Predict the 3D structure of the following.
Amino acid sequence: MSLVCGDENERLVAEQAVLAYREVHKAMLAAAYGQGLACTEAAVLVQGREQQRRMLELLLGGHPEAQKKGGVPDPAPAEARRRSGTTRPKP
């Protein structure tokens, strides 16, 4: 397979994905008998979260405006309760 990356960041994300896959594969091979699925799933969760963290760090690092502080531009009030038009309160 030949992957053409659009820029250096895409290349970095692709490399990190391969490294995460390798770590999950190592965890699967090192799992005790009968624990393969559990160990593999745990490794996927750990590696997946780390991969997402790195990707967010990479993306947000290049966009300072994405890290602006302040409130949400039109927040819904927390105390407001909306009811569906199809449900009616019980008598």
User: Anything to note?
Assistant: The chain is about 55% helix and 0% strand. Helices lie at 8-30, 36-61. The chain has a mean pLDDT of 82.
